[in-house]
Structure formats: structure tokens, C-alpha cells
Amino acid sequence: MPELTATPGQTIGPFFGYALPYPGDRELVPWGSAGSVRLHGYVHNGEGDGVADALLEVRQADASGAVPAVPGSLQRGGAPYTGWGRSSTDADGHYWFSTVEPGPTRPRSAPFFAVAVFARGLLNRLFTRIYLPAAPAVLDADPLLASLDAAERRAMVAVREADGSLRFDVHLQGPRETPFLSFPGHQR
Amino acid sequence: MNTPVLESGLVSQRVISEEIEKIQAGAAAGQAQPRLDFAPYRSAVLRHPARDLRPADPEGAELVAPVFGRSDVDPLESDLTIGGASEPIGSRIVVRGRVLDGDSRPVRGQLVEIWQANAAGRYVHQRDQHPAPLDPNFTGTGRCLTDDAGWYSFITIKPGPYPWHNHHNAWRPAHIHFSLFGTEFTQRMITQMYFPGDPLFALDPIYQSITDERARARLVAAYDHDSSQHDFLLGYRWDIVLTGRHATLMEDGDA
Predict the structure, then answer these.
(1) What is this model's ipTM?
(2) What is the structure's pLDDT at B17?
(3) DSSP letters of A104-124?
(4) Residue from A1, A3, A15 to probe the interface with B (highest B Cβ count within 10 Å)
């Protein structure tokens, strides 16, 4: 079949706030339910300021490593776990999700949340991964992490906080810039 | 009128247009996506990664898009003109087209979300302070699922252009925001659809951040008389192509 060129992306702009967020969007599982974890952090610009008009989406496996392909993400009440969620940032650039820690999707692979980042001022979406904190041997074996230097690698692994939450900050630019990903066939 | 900064504290359109021209003159042809570091769009200056994107082979959750179904989206959500007590003001239109992946395969049963300004160029958003009227019969948000051939369709009102503060006397061409999913999460994208012949195209740094003219044209809908309906509305056609799939490549033994 003929290969088509992808339609260009454009910025999400400043006015998505009444269109894309919806009740329960950031609750992949109910707050405080058994096995749930809070995944949260801040989105920063190149001067370290919080980005108040960003939107993050996560796509992830369940705790066993299976990636669900079931409907129901827009109607959270009573729906099964769908493995997808959406969080806009608040005035400080803070986002948060209630979710589960994904299991490895291949034997011994390093589990991660797949992430898409959108923001006013960001002309196309960015992809990254939030890896779960894990033993060095697990992270060392990951092909992407193995291709990064130590600082970049740290920037892709969530930090476990005292209350059990997972913390991951997104730096769109600057000395702590988050490594963002390009997949085969994606043209810049 | 060579003053680079006007009384408003904003630079002139001429300064922005010269910046656009200079960047585009130096850009390689055929770049299908916008430049993230496009400084004429001032908000991009501190919000683009300075380092190259890292090549990664998608795996796990990246290879599976979220799934949406009839439980998620009511068919009435695709008509943005029926939410109020009476008809919204403006030119009633239908916007329809197909969502395809890079291998020309239709993206079936997938979520499409849109949002837009009303006919006066005003969004129902508290941060939109443009002194144009809100329309009590129009919120400007819609959702639908594509059909088995990848078709989406929205009935709405033609949005108006609106001013913004990127520079002095800056106006966005009329557009509708589109949010799209493919069959893999790597195909996720958000973009804007424009209307044919808009005189603001050349002046708009967001549209012009796509430096290749043919690529820019992919964001412009076509007037489609076959979609227009007698005595009722005007039709626009806009097809969307997502990036290619990876899982299928592997199934085919290509990767």
C-alpha cells in the first residue's frame, strides 16, 4: 500500500481546558484503591517555571504487564481498567494521576509509563517514558536507558517519595531537559 | 514604521514576518512536521527541547492505543449545534474526512475530539479575554468515533479568526483543534484544521512553523460541494494521516 506523509501536528494552544479534561480523566484507578499509586510531578519551561497550560497523557500496562485494549476511559465509573489517562496541569504546572504501577511487558524488561506531552507553546506533541525505579540490573538491560548518559537516565526514572508516590518532573528545556523520544517513521 | 517594539510592548507583524521568512529560506524542503524551535511563535522559545529527540523502538504500551467505544461517546456529541436552547449564530458547516495511518489503512472506531472558537472568534474559556460575544448556544467542543472506513463527521459553526498577543495586531486564522488517536499510542497527535484561502495564513507563526509549503497545505480543508446540504449547511472535507504503525511492520517480518 502507498506510504502517506503524516499530517503535521500543531500546538494544543491555551484553550483546551474546557474541551479535553473530563471527570475522572486522571483516575486510571480510583484514588486510594488497593494497589493504587499517585504518579505526579511538575512540567517546567526552560527557565524552570511551571507550565500552567500543559496536558499529559499516560498509556500503560496493568500490574501484571498486560496492556488493556478495552473501552471505558471516558466513563470511569464502573468501567474496567483501561490503562490510559489524561491530566492537565494546574497553575503551578503540577499534574497527577491515580494509577497502578505497570508490570514488565516482556520478561525482565524495565516497566514504564508511556507519556505524551502537549502544551501551549509546544508546536507538536512530545513522547517520553517514565520508568519505575528498579534495581540497576533491570534498568541497565533496557535498550533505551542503556543508550543514555547517567544524567539523562536519571531524568527518565521516577523517584519514590516518602508517602509511596511516584514523582516525575518534565523539563521541556534547560539543563535538566527531559529526554524526548522519536519513534521509527516519525518525521521532525 | 521601523520601530521594532510598539507601544503595546509587542513587536510588529513586520518583525515577525521577517523572522518567518528568514527561517523558511534556510529550511530544508520536505519537512513534514512543525519546527519546535520556531521563535516567531514566542511561546515556543522556552518550551521546546534544545536536544535532539532520542530514537527509540516502541514497545509494550506504546504499541497499543487506548480503545474507546459506544459507552464513551454519544453520537449526539458530533453535532456542536444542538447543545443550546436554540441555534448558535454563524455559518453552519459539516467537517468530514477520513483518518488514515501512514500505510493508507483506515483508523476504525477511534476517538476524534475537537474544540474551537465561536463565529465571533471567542472561546468558552476563562482565559480568553477577547472582547467578542460568547454564544449561549455554542460551546465549541465535540467528539466522535470514526466508522469502519475511518470516517469522522462533525456538524458545527464556522469559527471566526481571533486576536492574540504573540505580537502587535496578531490574528489567528480561523481553525478547529483536532485530537487524534491511531491504533498505537505512538500515533497520538493534536493539530489544527484551517479553512481554504484564509488571508491570515502568511502572517501566522503557528501555521508557518511548518516550513514546507506542501506540508502546511495538509492542514487546510477543501470546500466540498458534495458534502454541502441543500438549504442547510456548507461542507468541508479534511483527511488526516497519522504516522505509520510499528506492530504491523514486525508482524510482516520487516523489522
Answers:
(1) 0.97
(2) 98
(3) PSSTTPPPEEEEEEEETT-SS
(4) A15
